[in-house]
Recover the amino acids of this structure.
């Protein structure tokens, strides 16, 4: 990694870095999700995360993610965090149908949640890219050919103050362990976000 990571959010859960592998275990019933049906004044969910400030300009963060699924919505997450109600998640998540699934969530006040595709096997590659003031979320079965899942902005101001990193979540469960390995951080974006490169 080219960025220094620090823990943010409420205390709870744990993480350890061994060589190039990050293992995170969430606290029970933790999440970052602002339900569009939520009541005004309702406390916003929060979860411990490991994030850092990227250098200015374009960047790409990628990792292979393995999750010990136990409960619905357990997930390992690549995270963009720009404020209390401004973030984006790229998740390897356990769906209500009991299937490992690639999921994206973009939160601007409330969360916009989209299930992208089910995953065959126990691992998936996830990638976050900043290009200009925009962000792209990709998944891959092999870390070579990438599928664009989401292309969006959090606003020009947010793009310049965003933090990037990792999270494990277990909104309904007693905790979830996610392993991030083959982590890479590059100060560039793919030339074409849609061609699989």
């Amino acid at each position: 990694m080219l960025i220094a990571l620090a823990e943010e959010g409420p205390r709870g859960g744990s993480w350890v870095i061994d060589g190039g592998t990050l293992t995170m275990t969430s606290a029970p019933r933790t999440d970052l999700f602002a339900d569009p049906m939520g009541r005004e004044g309702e406390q916003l969910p929060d979860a411990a995360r490991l994030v850092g400030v990227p250098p200015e300009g374009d960047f790409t963060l990628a990792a292979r993610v393995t999750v010990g699924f136990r409960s619905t919505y357990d997930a390992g997450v690549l995270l963009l965090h720009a404020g209390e109600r401004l973030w984006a998640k790229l998740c390897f998540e356990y769906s209500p149908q009991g299937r490992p699934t690639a999921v994206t969530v973009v939160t601007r006040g409330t969360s916009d949640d989209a299930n992208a595709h089910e995953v065959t096997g126990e691992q998936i590659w996830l990638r976050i890219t900043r290009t200009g003031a925009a962000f792209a979320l990709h998944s891959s079965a092999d870390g070579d050919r990438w599928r664009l899942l989401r292309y969006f902005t959090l606003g020009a101001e947010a793009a310049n103050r965003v933090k990037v990193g990792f999270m494990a979540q277990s909104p309904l469960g007693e905790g979830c362990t996610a392993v991030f390995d083959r982590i890479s951080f590059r100060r560039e974006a793919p030339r074409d976000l849609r061609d699989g490169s």
Summary: Helices lie at 156-161. Residues 7-31+48-186 form a domain with the Jelly Rolls fold (CATH 2.60.120.200). The chain has one domain: 7-31+48-186.
